[in-house]
Design brief:
Layout: H1 14-23, H2 25-37, E1 42-46, E2 52-58, E3 66-72, H3 78-89, E4 94-101, H4 106-116, E5 118-131, E6 145-147, H5 151-162, H6 168-176, E7 180-186, E8 189-199, E9 203-211, H7 220-234, E10 238-244, H8 250-260, E11 262-275
Parallel strand pairs: 3-4, 9-10
Antiparallel strand pairs: 1-2, 2-3, 4-11, 5-10, 5-11, 6-7, 7-8, 8-9
Helix pairs in contact: 1-2, 7-8
């Protein structure tokens, strides 16, 4: 499938995108997925045949508002990041920008914030983990993991996670567009969840893994993640997930994923920016 061309999409050669994805689906999954599904809200600037900056203005964020994700897949210069940021800031509804890069570009971030009236909110590292199929272990034999389509149950558990209610209409849109949610019910309520928010034939990306505090320590997250892994593998796709070191449960989450069979694929520097009031 080829994305629609329009003035917002800086796409010089879609065959180059397909070639990159086929050469490395894990590193280029967002590149292909965003351009196909969100062409009008996507910015792409190739710097060489292999190096690019990708930005997506995402309008269906779970907690409302319009956020932007900028993915840099090489050692960038300041102008390339600035161009992607300016694309995002043209939309006055964008209130948050998240940038990931394979190297530390904090000096660029400082200059960006000064020149574009942004505030640095947080700095973190993102661990991309990929399932090693030979090490895969199942943990769901003793619990009932199921697909969850009840948006009210999902919103209820996510409210406990973040302390505020997610945007239910955005959640409906995401599910209608193919996002899958999985969970475990105990004591007549949804107590643990995870989602697959990006699905391509070769890659499934897992996220939004959360268990209510009073039900932790029972291996429920491992059960859900391993269940999703088996579904992905049965569909010919490789499971991928991201772990953020600013998560207070980073260590326990990391250990759980390793037990399922995940290994670190790469580590990226992340920066969260918000518009200055």
């Amino acid at each position: 499938m080829k994305p629609a061309r329009n003035s917002k999409l800086y796409l010089t050669d879609f065959t180059k995108v397909v070639k990159l994805y086929r050469s490395d689906p894990i590193d280029n999954a967002y590149l292909l997925y965003d351009l196909i599904n969100y062409p009008e809200d996507t910015f792409l600037r190739f710097c060489t045949d292999w190096d690019y900056v990708l930005a997506l203005i995402y309008r269906h964020a779970l907690w409302g508002g319009h956020v932007c994700y900028i993915h840099v897949n090489y050692i960038p210069n300041y102008e390339h990041i600035l161009e992607a940021v300016d694309f995002c800031l043209k939309d006055s509804t964008v209130n948050s920008i998240y940038i990931t890069c394979p190297v530390n570009v904090e000096h660029y971030i400082t200059d960006l914030c000064k020149s574009r009236n942004l505030v640095p909110k947080e700095k973190y590292r993102v661990y991309t983990m990929v399932l090693n199929v030979r090490k895969f272990r199942r943990f769901y034999d003793k619990v009932n993991v199921q697909r969850i389509c009840n948006v009210y149950d999902i919103c209820d558990i996510l409210r406990e996670w973040r302390g505020s209610a997610p945007n239910i209409e955005n959640l409906r849109i995401r599910i209608s567009q193919g996002e899958r949610w999985y969970g475990i019910y105990l004591d007549s309520k949804l107590v643990s969840v995870a989602s697959v928010y990006l699905r391509l034939p070769e890659v499934w990306i897992i996220g939004n893994v959360f268990t209510r505090p009073e039900y932790r320590g029972r291996g429920l997250a491992k059960a859900i993640v391993s269940y999703i892994c088996e579904e992905a593998l049965s569909n010919g796709a490789l499971p991928v997930l991201h772990v953020f070191d600013n998560n207070p449960y980073f260590e326990s989450a990391y250990r759980a994923y390793v037990r399922v069979g995940f290994e670190v694929h790469d580590v990226r520097f992340g920066y969260a920016l918000i518009r200055a009031v």
